[in-house]
């Protein structure tokens, strides 16, 4: 029997001027979710049950960008996505384009357990949710007044906003010489060659290893504020935003397009399996060598009960707990 361990994240890329009360609110949610997960592992629950349970908690709390409190599309609606993977047998399930499912991660679990497929999206995923009897709500449940306000600012600035909690200036506050928010400047941020305004996504994720040495991972998000309808990021893509196998489990957060190109989560596992790197070594190598100029962060656990994390952004909302009683929550 091994030692259990768990890690959670609430997104990489944090506004350095984030008010202290917002920081403490994020820490509070992470501590609570870690407590839920640690209690489950202590009680002998399988890792896959624990990661689903923890991400459900994160989806229900509007502090982060998943479930209730998700970022809004250009049309002012919510389109959510999630994935889950069980290292035992490398089983997986993913969903995208959800508009009424209260807990996307649990629908991803049902795709894994009760369908012949690994990925369902949009109308097909919504139909499957109703067939399975999962809880559904009106799309308005996921929308907060703050998100509506930030979407309005993003539209005025004609920009995608990564961190929907960080206000962007309206277009009339930008001088004509400066150009629109997100215009390419020295050191300016880009996605696939196009300018963006602020980099600070708030996807949520959880990885765990149980006392039997089995690893699992789950990731959930509302995506980007002011994104095009139909946009799919890294979070539901197995091998990119989420991965679990016999060696480790990984959940990523950050610039989705860069994470997709680098198959970041799978790369960590491959570095351990094929190059013989330790968990933290693999995390560090993947972030440094595989992202090109992309910005991202990730959390990971190994079958031996190790915990690792890394990010190349200003900060990452994160926390971890281990069987020996250690618990830590951090941002910077």
Automatic annotation (TrEMBL):
Domain of life: Eukaryota
Assigned EC number: 3.4.19.5
Residues that coordinate or bind substrate: 231-234, 253-256
Keyword field contains Hydrolase: yes
Residues with site note (Cleavage): 202-203
Molecular function terms, GO-annotated: asparaginase activity; beta-aspartyl-peptidase activity
Gene Ontology process terms (BP): proteolysis
A Pfam short name: Asparaginase_2
Annotated catalysed reactions: Cleavage of a beta-linked Asp residue from the N-terminus of a polypeptide
Name of the top EC class for this enzyme: hydrolase
Swiss-Prot/TrEMBL keywords: Autocatalytic cleavage, Hydrolase, Protease
Annotated active site: 203 (nucleophile)
Entry-linked SUPFAM superfamilies: N-terminal nucleophile aminohydrolases (Ntn hydrolases)
Subunit: Heterotetramer of two alpha and two beta chains arranged as a dimer of alpha/beta heterodimers.
Name listed for the protein in its UniProt record: beta-aspartyl-peptidase
Species of the source: Musa balbisiana
Source organism phylogeny: Eukaryota, Viridiplantae, Streptophyta, Embryophyta, Tracheophyta
């Amino acid at each position: 029997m091994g030692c259990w361990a768990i890690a959670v994240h609430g997104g990489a890329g944090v506004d350095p001027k984030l008010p202290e009360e917002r920081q403490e609110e994020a820490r509070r949610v992470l501590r609570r979710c870690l407590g839920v997960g640690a209690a489950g592992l202590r009680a002998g629950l399988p890792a896959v049950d624990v990661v689903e349970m923890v991400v459900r908690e994160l989806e229900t709390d509007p502090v982060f960008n998943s479930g209730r409190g998700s970022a809004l599309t250009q049309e002012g609606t919510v389109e959510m996505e999630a994935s889950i993977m069980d290292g035992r047998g490398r089983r997986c399930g993913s969903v995208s384009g959800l508009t009424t499912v209260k807990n996307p991660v649990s629908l991803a679990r049902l795709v894994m357990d009760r369908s012949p497929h690994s990925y369902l999206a949009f109308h097909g995923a919504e139909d499957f949710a109703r067939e399975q009897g999962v809880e559904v709500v009106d799309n308005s449940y996921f929308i907060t007044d703050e998100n509506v306000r930030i979407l309005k600012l993003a539209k005025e600035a004609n920009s995608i906003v990564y961190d929907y909690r960080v206000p962007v200036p309206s277009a009339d506050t930008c001088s004509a010489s400066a150009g629109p928010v997100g215009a390419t400047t020295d050191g300016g941020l880009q996605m696939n060659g196009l300018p963006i305004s602020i980099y600070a996504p708030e996807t949520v994720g959880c990885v765990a290893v149980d006392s039997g040495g089995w690893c699992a991972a789950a990731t959930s998000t509302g995506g980007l504020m002011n994104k095009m309808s139909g946009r799919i990021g890294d979070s539901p893509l197995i091998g990119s935003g989420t991965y679990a196998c016999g060696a480790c489990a990984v959940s990523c957060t950050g610039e989705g397009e860069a994470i997709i190109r680098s198959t970041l989560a799978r790369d960590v596992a491959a570095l351990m399996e094929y190059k013989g790197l330790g968990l933290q070594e693999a995390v560090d190598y993947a972030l440094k060598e595989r992202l090109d100029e992309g910005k991202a962060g990730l959390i990971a656990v190994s079958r031996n009960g190790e915990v690792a994390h890394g990010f190349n952004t200003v900060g990452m909302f994160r926390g971890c707990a281990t069987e020996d009683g250690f618990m830590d929550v951090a941002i910077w």
